[in-house]
Amino acid sequence: MDDLALAHRLIAELDETFCLTFVKGADAAAALLRMGGCPDTLREREPGEPCGPANAAALTLGAWSVVIEPGGALGADHALLEAASRGTAAVSVFRGGKSAAHFGYAVDGATIAGFDPGYPTEETTFGADPGMLRHLMDALGLRPPSDESDTAWREADARAIVLAQRITGVRMPEEPLRAARLSARLEPWFVTPARPGELLRAGRRTPHAADLVAAAEAAAPALQRAVAVAEVRRQAASLGVADTPGLDEALDAGGPVAADSPLGRRVREWLATPGPDGLDWFAASLRGVLDPDPRVAVLAALRPLAAGPAALADDAARAAALDALRGQD
Fold this sequence. Notes:
The chain is globular and about 70 Å long. By secondary structure, it is of the alpha+beta class. The protein has two domains: about 5-190, no CATH class; about 195-325, no CATH class. The chain has helices at about 5-15, 30-35, 80-85, 135-140, 155-170, 210-220, 220-240, 245-255, 260-270, 280-290, 295-305, 315-325, and strands at about 20-25, 45, 55-60, 65-70, 90-95, 100-105, 110-115, 180-185. The chain has twelve helices and eight strands. Helix 7 (about 220-240) runs antiparallel to helix 10 and helix 7 (about 220-240) runs antiparallel to helix 12.
């Protein structure tokens, strides 16, 4: 059976929405952990046993492993793909039922090329070297439709899977979910940095943000860090989670939080139950304040003051943070 026919069979098995992420030089367990797999959820599944919608499966394929997300799309996020590729390389193929497909190739923490397989124009392909894959794409027929009658996009998902196999030099097995494989619940919070949307920005919808952003940007790095930590401690107290095991130590030392630590388990609970109590906002602030860049830390910590839920958007706290950043406290 040729590669394109196998890709079509794979699509039929995995259904409307799925993501395949190939990681070089990692076995199945390591590939899952690189993508934020929670170690306490890692387990072997029997042939044919379903993974469930919130879990990913992984298979070792020679020098690479593939992480399979039935119904998922986390590998299509360039921040997670870059995290998985640090010190090695990673390739992802996402097929979305009602959303655009995506192909990504990253090496050592940087996206080399990313594009929509159904419409891979030069103008919309991004990355450090977006033309690097062009010869392979041309050879496989991955091209944008030339007009409305052109149906090249119909086989784009299958051709993208073949492209991933050409880059990696490995071949997806038939019926991969019917084989014994490892699985784990993925939580990207533990391996990806704060997102741009999680940082405070001035805008019409955040009337209190402009002064905070200006003061934060002008502050010295040590002051940025101190204000960020103080604000996250205030948020923890306001939400009644200040006594969470490991929180004080994480704020004192900085650095990553282990997914299976007491604090990591609480973070997973907060992320799983977004709502008006603001715990998901607090998790975003915490991830930001643990970033080694003090600018990221302070802008992430301050965001709830200007745009967050009532439990965190405290006028007095906002004024105090502004004074602290300006050296007026």
